[in-house]
Amino acid sequence: MKRTFREIILTFSLCLIATFGFTQSKEIKIEFLGNCGLYLTDGTTNIYTDFPYKSGAHGYMEFDESELDSIRENSIFIFTHKHSDHYSEKNIKKVIKEKGGKKYGSWNIEELENLKKLVPNFSVQVFKTKHKWSSKHYSYLITWHNKKIFLSGDTESAETIGTIKNIDWAFVPYWVLLDAKENDIKIDAKMFGVYHLATVQIPSAKENYDEIENIRPMVEKGEKITIELQTE
Q: Which residues form a coiled coil (predicted)?
């Protein structure tokens, strides 16, 4: 398979981390980038999920062009599917051309699963999930430094997440929580980040979830979450 020079550099960089070790922070930081977009870092490896998308697509959140300039070099980009409020071919091409890195999604699932060989203390479990507007939709369970982070994407059903145990953070749209309630599905998660809210849904999300201790509505781009890691 033909590989670009930037892809070779990214793989080489990840191999160096895996081989020689690294100095990491004692936490995983997660920043909300709008819609289902998240930026995750342990201080060494940088991961973007469902970002960059097309700003303002389908009436969802917008972002300034300058936010693309702030993306870290040689990052990992993971996409649940290719709808424009989750994925922009134009934007991701621009970012990878200027910053390096590699994108993962329905087109290279096996490579995504094999990232565990390159990134220390990291793995991705892949679930093909239902989304009535997309035949190729995936949800992901990232296990990183023994912390479990579930990324739901646009799936309408709580069926998949209901089978997973001991999730530290579950990022889900509100309709997954509704589906779980309606179908009596128990979601085993310590914390929930409710994302992919349209502007008109934000007031009711705040009203419904702000007083619930383990549910955090993601309503402002730039919001940050910190997951403390156990000291080894």
A: none
